[in-house]
Amino acid sequence: MTLSGGLRQITRSHTLGQQVETAVQLGCGLLSVLSLLTCFRWRRWAPPVRAAWVISLAAAAGLSSLVWGPPLLIVALAFAAGALLLALGILRLLRIGLAEDEVAMIQAGFTMVSPLTQSRTVVIATDAETGGAGFTLEVTCLPGMGPNVMEHLHEAWTETFEILSGRAQYRLGGKHLKAEAGETIVMPPPVPHVHPWNAGAGEMTYRQTSRFETPSRQAVQDTLGSFATMNGLAREGKVDARGLPRNPLQLAAILRTLGRHGGYSTRLPIPAQKLLSATLGRFAEALGYRGVYERYVRGESAR
Predict the structure, then answer these.
(1) CA angle in degrees (0–180, nearest 5) for 280-245-170
(2) Please, are residues 61 and 25 in contact by the beta-carbon 8 Å criterion?
(3) Does the predicted model carry a pTM greater than 0.85?
(4) H helices present in the chain, as ranges
């Protein structure tokens, strides 16, 4: 509809504003076709294509009321808001009507390698072994490399780290501490912490056991899947020097996934993160961004 409408408007567009609105409407029409195509083919391009379509639809609706009708800003904003809600509703219907690929279940033996720190993580136990009460990992960190994850906290998880070999350093409650082989570190909720990283000249290996206050199989799979996804994004050059996705919508989707299970960054107050999750995170998911992607989970398992 936007494509055919834009074509009809070409000969009637005389002012600069009308020409711009017509061009935006034509672009929106092309993007709507591409959005439908990405439901079946080239799915990895679906999120950015849908984001561009939503923005162009809202822009076309707002501009249309300004250049073809009374030039009232409040009316233009109302039209743009209405178009935005309509677009999100359509995307939601597409998600319901089109079954998405199921993400492969992560099992014991699954191995991940961080492209940023070259640390190697082997999954020892998942929800299959713990009944959803947590998971166990064995992580080997190379000398001279920093932490795998930024400072964060869990509302209801207790994490235990047994140093199997080497020397480790970590942060707990704002304090920078060290541990030797044979020592065990307990990080209780909701204390801010950074997982151990290497403090010696050789490799350092630890065993991490995460236990949940309330068992949740989904929490296990979402958490491990988000680790695999972050590694996949890093391999494709889609993260910054801190290991965070450059695309704010992709970051919002991952943080929303982790936030569902009580995991939060310490960079923002938790209420602010929950608000962003309920707004920007939902918007990102509506566009097709996910905290866990099948291709990254399978990509890690194939390495």
Answers:
(1) 110
(2) no
(3) no
(4) 2-9, 16-37, 46-67, 73-97, 127-130, 217-235, 248-259, 270-276, 282-287, 294-301
Contact of 271 with 296, CB cutoff 8 Å: no
**Banded model confidence at residue 1, pLDDT cuts 50, 70, 90:** very low
Q: Convert the pLDDT of each residue in 206-220 to its tens digit.
A: 999 999 999 999 999
In the predicted model, what is the mean pLDDT of residues 235-241?
Answer: 92
CATH superfamily, domain 111-301, is Jelly Rolls (2.60.120.10)
Q: Give residue 12's pLDDT band: very low, low, confident or very high (50, 70, 90).
A: low
Lowest mean pLDDT among 53-57, 228-232, 286-290: 53-57
The secondary structure of the chain in percent helix, strand, coil, rounded to multiples of 5, reads 50, 20, 30
- pLDDT confidence of residue 62: 73
Number of neighbouring beta carbons within 10 Å of residue 285: 21
Tokens of 201: 């000249």
- Is residue 245 within 8 A of residue 251, CB to CB? The reply is yes
Instruction: Please name which of 156, 145, 263 lies closest in space to residue 201, comparing C-alpha atoms.
Output: 145
Two structure tokens written together for 180: 């030797």
Distance between CA 197 and CA 141 in Å, rounded? 6
Give the CA count within 13 Å in the CB-facing half-sphere of 32: 17
How far CA 26 is from CA of 11, 13, 23, 30, 154, in Å, comes to: 13, 13, 5, 6, 47
Burial string for 39-75 (b: 16+ CB within 10 Å, else e) reads beeebeebbbbbbbbbbbbbbbbbbbbbbbeeeeeee
> What residue has token string 């080239």?
42
For CATH 2.60.120.10, the residue range(s) in the chain are 111-301
